[in-house]
Amino acid sequence: MEFGCCNLSLWKEAVSAYQSRIEALNKPNLASLDDYYRNHLPPLLHQRNPNSYITTSELSKLMQWKLTRGKWRPRLLDFVSGLDEALVKSASEKAFRSLPDVSKAITELTVLKGVGPATASAVLAAYAPDIAPFMSDEAMEAALGNSKDYTLKQYLIFVNKLQKKAKELSSEGDIFTPSDVERALWSSAVGAKLLSSNLNPDSKSNTSKNTKRKRKR
To answer: Where are the residues of the annotated region Disordered (predicted)?
Structure first.
């Protein structure tokens, strides 16, 4: 599905297929981590109003989700898991209070070691999916044609495009958030990859090799 697609039913289909594609990737713990990130973490954050914050253990689990759904970078998880609890609480409180100023919110979070704009975007998306989408490679590639630039400047361009697309898709009475747009783009990209690998006769052996490599990490 192209980012410029205006067919609401196709976007809805992509969002609906998200869960099955998470499961189809067959990555250890991904389904449970995704369930935690989308369904359990947001209420936890909002229960702490008026001064919402994230804890170090929650941030660590969020990082596990991000790395499992995307590219595995174990050093980032080590950095985040070792962060001081008070520092994480303070930085995330300031970030959440900064919204809807996404630039300021990201800046408040990236003072934490191991937390770049992409991880910071995942924190904000868990708290305010209607404002800040997660900066996934798949959605970046679809929206901007580039998934290698993890800067704040690039993220702000990405946010603007996904907010506009969400508004466009919500014009017919449905509610589409920027985070829904991100999930649809991710789902569509992963669906295409899964289809391609199923058409490839060597896909099963490749999957087996990849699984063995992952287990050594």
So the answer is: 196-217
> Rounded to two decimals, what is the model's pTM?
0.89
Range of the domain at 183: 8-196
The count of domains in the chain is 1
- 89 part of a folded domain: yes
SS3 content of the chain, % helix, strand, coil (to 5): 70, 0, 30
Residue 201 lies in a domain: no
Dump pLDDT digits (tens) for 35-91.
Answer: 999 999 999 999 997 899 999 999 999 999 999 999 888 889 999 999 999 999 999
DSSP output for 98-160 = HTT-HHHHHHHHTTSTT--HHHHHHHHHHH-TTT-----HHHHHHHHS--S---HHHHHHHHH
Phi-psi region of 5 (alpha: psi -120 to 50; beta: other; left: phi over 0): beta
Judge whether 34 lies within some domain.
yes
| Strand residues in the chain grouped as ranges (E) | none
Residue at 21 is within a domain: yes
Question: Which residue has 């970046």 as its token pair?
Answer: 140
Q: What CA–CA distance (Å, rounded) separates 57 from 81?
A: 7
